[in-house]
Every structure is written in structure tokens, then in C-alpha cells.
Write a structure and sequence with these properties.
The complex is a heterodimer of chains A (303) and B (251). By secondary structure, chain A is of the alpha/beta class. Chain A is built from 9 helices and 10 strands. Chain A has a 10-stranded mixed sheet with strand order 1-2-3-5-4-6-7-8-9-10, sandwiched between helices. In chain A, strand 2 and strand 3 form a beta hairpin. The longest helix of chain A is centred in the middle third of the chain and has 20 residues. Chain A is globular. Chain B contains 6 helices and 10 strands, in the order E-E-E-H-E-H-E-H-E-E-E-H-E-H-E-H. In chain B, helix 1 packs across helix 6 and helix 2 crosses helix 3. About 6% of the residues of chain B have low confidence. The chains are: A alpha/beta (303), B alpha/beta (251).
């Protein structure tokens, strides 16, 4: 079922249209089309939910990105997964992780039929990033995926970056070794547990939304790159508990066959939800620049 | 639930119409008025659940985003309080046209409660007002949990992910200084849900009509005031139940 309502000029020279579609739920989305004269055979950008936040995104990030991308010639679609935001829960009883992939596939089907689009770029923040990667791995229509603060694991250098500055501070060192220090108690508990139970597998603590195992993620990235898809990684300062230097991703996965298809940007001063205008504008410019270069970039680009 | 854009071609507003799906007296409609900034994100789910609950009771319900917010057109800095009050009027007219209604109830959450009151006092077709956890203009955050200043302090240009404008600040100041004891219109029913007492800002706005306002205190942590800067917030089940029960007897 496809239902469209009220085409309107919502932004100078852009048009936005509310669309209801989907076989397993009435998914709700908004299509932002470029000015008609500039629309080309560009890939269509599809923006996924961040967690259970509705399709406008944190601090309207998705709305701004959609309109900026359309201004640069990319048709853009933002929608709510079944059970999130303005889309009602699905009726087919599929589990969440599987249902999300069905929703993405149905969305691409819609846009393929509606726009004649054959190439897509997925973008998402947090769980939206993980879901983008999961879909990009298997759907050959996806030529690029922008992953913002995805699930990521720490490296030895992450620990150095994290703890070394603390060790340089005499005051912090003395605090650390004080008898009341909670860190010492935690370390003691962890060591005891490890001696008793063997080494503990490290997992990210938050937002386990389908991807959590390091090797599983590596396999997703490798499969995605091998089939020619390109990846944009954006890491914010809000993710510093997991990611704290630009090269961390490629150090984490040193054996990828095509690292040249990965573009990493690190925004250490930016919050996880891109709270300020400056944060949002910087990301949107980097992302839309990357989208324009997506077919020509050949080098690893880390900054 | 049907999504569409409404309003003028130059300022289209994103809206969702929830048609009645359950038994009820019929002929009743409600426009839901959002809070702003990060509070809006955290309240989205609760407002959707409330809309579904009302539609199951036979109500026509319209949710929408003010200009410069959510999925509606416009940038953050294009938004003004007066503009948002006008947007509520656009939504009320739209719902009346869709459902062939003579009047509507306005249900406003947080700053949306203030906007709903301001819109309701201008419109003779406001049949009821429900002010849900209304923001206390004297002491509370307006755009999000980050700003807890007073009205004699400048509103930050960006707070909780939303921008403010000089016009926005000016209107807040005017609201603070100018009580409105002689409201031109006052609906048959008015309910304040959430706080222990009606905030002073609303006392001024409502004036002599205060005695016609019902107060229902809710002992529930408001999801929109979570400290975390992320997440859509849990559903405010008790408040939704209270509103649904109260509206069950609405004319």
C-alpha cells in the first residue's frame, strides 16, 4: 500500500512529500526531492532512525541533512521503522533485528519504483549506523553507508589515550591510589573474576542493537567493502568512551581488504546528538562532500 | 494515522491525522500541541500513545509540528511564539475541515500548554483546554533541560538542540510582564495535568477563569525532563490515562 499526501514546497526549490507505504506495517516517511532542474542520476540517500527517536532525528539532524543533500542533488528519504516514531508496530511478528532489515528493503523497493533509483546511500546515527551496515552488507543496491557513532571496540591505544593524561596528574594519581577509590575496587573485582572465570570478552556496554561482536562487525565491514560499497565513519566526542583518536577504526581492523573504501572523520568536540548548529553543519558538509566523491575516491582518508 | 502537509504553500506543516477507530459519541476533535527542543523528542512517543488512546475513544486527533520544528518546513531561527500560536490555529481549522467539527479541544504539553492556552484564548471554537505539565515560565527550561534560567536572563541562542531568536525572547518577556485577566474566550472545560499547583504564569494568563480549571496532580516522573541528552523517553502512562478518562466525559 502506498499513500502520498500533499506535495508542498517546504524549502525554496525543494519539495517534500509525506508517504505511507509498506507491506508489514504502515511505514511513514518523507521524501525530499532536489529542485527539478538539478535532479540527476545521483544515488538516493535514506536516513534511518537513531535508536527509538523519530525520523526528524536528534536536534532535527535528519531534517537538515535531508534538505542539504537534496539541495546538492540527492533525493533523500527519512522514515520511521515499524514501531518507532510515527510508524505503527509491525503486524508480521518478526523480531526487531530482522524487521528492521525488512523495513529497509521495503523502503528501497518503494524508492526504486517511485524515483527509478537504483543506487542508495544509507545513513544512521548510533543504532541507525549499525542497521545501515547490516543492510549494506547484503543489499547490492546500497553503494554507500554513512555510519555515525556505530558500535566500536577499544584498542590498546584507546586505553593509553584515556588513562595516560590521568597518570600525568599527581593529584589524580594520589586520588586513584586512595583507599576509598572506586576504580581500585573495580579493578580488584575484575581481576578476581578473571582469575576465577578466565578472560572476559570485551563488548560495548551501550546500544547493543544487533551488532556487538568485534569479529562479526569486522566481517560485516569486509563483506560490504568487497562488494564495492563505500563507508563513511563519523565519530563524535560523545562517543569518546569507545573511540578517542582518528585512526582507531583502521587499527582495530588492520586486515580489511579494501580500506581505501573507508572514509573516517573524527569530531572530538561534537556531542553524540550534534547539539549545535556548527556541529551539524560540519557533519552535513563532510557527508555531502563524501557523497559527491563516492564514485571517485580511491585513497584512505583519515582526518 | 495519515501523514500529510497542511497550511500555506510557503510554510507547510507536517501533520498526522488519527481518525476515530473506536466507539464514542463522535463529533469530538483534539489538536495536540508539542513541547519544544529536546523535550519534544522525549515526549513524541507519549503524544502518539495519547492520540491513539483518544482515537480509540471516538475522537478525531491531529498531531503536528510547529514551523521550524520537527518535520515541518523552516529553520529553527524562523520560529516565533506568535508563529507557533498561529500554527495551532492552522491545525484547528484543518481538523475541523477534515472531520466536519464545530470546535476542537487543544491539548498542550510543556511549552505547548502555554501555546495552546494562548491560541485557545483567541479562538471561540476552543471547546476544551488540557494543559499537560505546563512549563513554569518563571523558573523552568523553555527549550530543553539545559537552560534553567529565569526570564530576566537572556535565552541562550542554542539550548537543548534548538535555537531561539530575539523575537522569541521578546515575547517571553512580554508574557512574563503582561497578565491577561480578561481573556476574550474561555472554553467550557479546562484541565491542568501534572503539577501540584497551577504555575504562576498560567494564573496570570487565565485570570478570573482560574476557578473553572480542574487540577489533576500526577505522581510520575515526566519523561521529557530526563537528564540524558538522547532517547525518546518512556511513555507517561498515568498522565495519558488521566487525560483519556477526563476526556471520556467531554461533550
Amino acid at each position: 500500500m502506498i499513500r502520498e499526501e500533499n506535495a508542498n514546497q517546504s524549502f525554496p526549490r525543494l519539495s517534500e512529500r509525506a508517504i505511507q507505504y509498506g507491506l508489514s506495517s504502515n511505514l511513514n516517511g518523507i521524501l525530499t526531492r532536489p529542485p527539478s532542474k538539478t535532479e540527476t542520476n545521483q544515488p538516493c540517500l535514506v536516513i534511518l532512525n537513531a535508536g527509538i527517536l523519530h525520523k526528524a532525528g536528534p536536534n532535527r539532524l535528519h531534517v537538515r541533512l535531508a534538505r542539504a543533500a537534496a539541495q546538492r542533488g540527492f533525493p533523500t528519504f527519512r522514515f520511521d521503522f515499524a514501531g518507532v516514531g510515527d510508524s505503527p508496530p509491525r503486524g508480521d511478528g518478526r523480531p526487531l533485528a530482522e524487521g528492521v532489515l525488512v523495513d529497509i528493503a521495503e523502503t528501497l523497493d518503494l524508492l526504486e519504483a517511485r524515483l527509478g533509483a537504483s543506487r542508495f546511500i544509507l545513513a544512521g546515527l548510533c543504532s541507525g549506523a549499525d542497521n545501515s551496515l547490516r543492510a549494506a552488507r547484503t543489499d547490492s543496491r546500497v553503494v554507500g553507508a554513512a555510519l555515525l557513532d556505530p558500535t566500536v571496540h577499544r584498542t590498546p591505544r584507546w586505553y593509553l589515550n584515556h588513562y595516560l593524561p590521568r597518570l600525568r596528574s599527581r593529584e589524580r594519581v594520589s586520588q586513584f591510589f586512595s583507599l576509598e577509590n572506586a576504580n581500585l575496587k573495580t579493578i580488584s573485582k575484575t581481576l578476581n573474576r578473571r582469575f576465577r572465570e578466565g578472560p572476559e570478552k570485551e563488548r560495548p556496554e551501550l546500544f547493543r542493537t544487533g551488532l556487538s561482536d568485534k569479529q562479526d562487525i569486522a566481517q560485516h565491514i569486509e563483506d560490504t567493502l568487497r562488494r564495492g560499497c563505500r563507508l563513511f565513519y563519523g565519530f563524535t566526542g560523545g562517543w569518546k568512551e569507545y573511540y578517542n583518536y582518528p585512526e582507531q577504526l583502521l587499527e582495530l581492523y588492520p586486515n580489511l581488504s579494501r580500506p581505501d573504501r573507508i572514509h573516517v572523520r573524527h569530531y572530538p568536540e561534537t556531542s553524540h546528538t550534534f547539539k549545535t548548529d556548527g556541529d551539524r553543519n560540519r557533519l552535513i558538509k563532510d557527508l555531502t562532500d563524501w557523497m559527491e566523491l563516492i564514485q571517485t575516491t580511491r585513497k584512505v582518508n583519515v582526518s | 494515522m495519515n501523514p500529510f502537509f497542511m497550511g500555506s504553500e510557503h510554510q507547510p506543516l507536517y501533520a498526522l491525522y488519527h481518525p476515530p477507530v473506536g466507539r464514542g459519541p463522535g463529533g469530538r476533535g483534539a489538536v495536540l500541541c508539542n513541547p519544544l527542543g529536546s523535550e519534544s523528542n522525549r515526549a513524541h512517543r507519549s503524544l502518539r500513545v495519547l492520540a491513539d488512546a483518544l482515537s480509540r475513544s471516538g475522537w478525531h486527533v491531529l498531531r503536528f509540528d510547529y514551523r521550524g520544528t520537527g518535520d515541518s518546513s523552516g529553520e529553527d531561527d524562523s520560529a516565533t511564539l506568535n508563529g507557533w500560536v498561529e500554527d495551532i490555529g492552522v491545525a484547528a481549522e484543518e481538523l475541523k475541515a477534515i472531520a466536519d467539527l464545530k470546535g476542537v479541544h487543544l491539548i498542550g504539553l510543556r511549552l505547548g500548554a502555554f501555546l495552546a492556552t494562548a491560541a485557545g484564548l483567541r479562538r471561540p471554537d476552543t471547546q476544551g483546554l488540557i494543559l499537560w505539565d505546563p512549563v513554569d515560565l518563571h523558573s523552568e527550561s523553555i527549550l530543553g533541560a539545559q537552560w534553567c534560567g529565569h526570564l530576566d536572563q537572556p535565552v541562550p541562542r542554542e539550548s537543548g538542540g534548538a535555537a531561539s531568536t530575539a523575537d522569541f525572547e521578546k515575547m517571553l518577556q512580554e508574557i512574563h510582564k503582561q497578565p491577561n485577566p480578561n481573556a476574550p474566550f474561555w472554553p467550557h472545560q479546562a484541565l491542568v495535568v501534572g503539577p501540584k499547583a497551577i504555575p504562576d504564569g498560567f494564573r496570570r494568563l487565565v485570570g478570573e477563569n482560574l476557578k473553572r480549571v480542574t487540577l489533576k496532580e500526577i505522581d510520575e516522573a515526566p519523561p521529557w525532563l530526563e537528564e540524558s541528552d538522547f532517547g525518546a523517553g518512556p511513555v507517561a502512562a498515568r498522565a495519558i490515562h488521566t487525560i483519556s478518562t477526563w476526556t471520556g466525559s467531554a461533550p
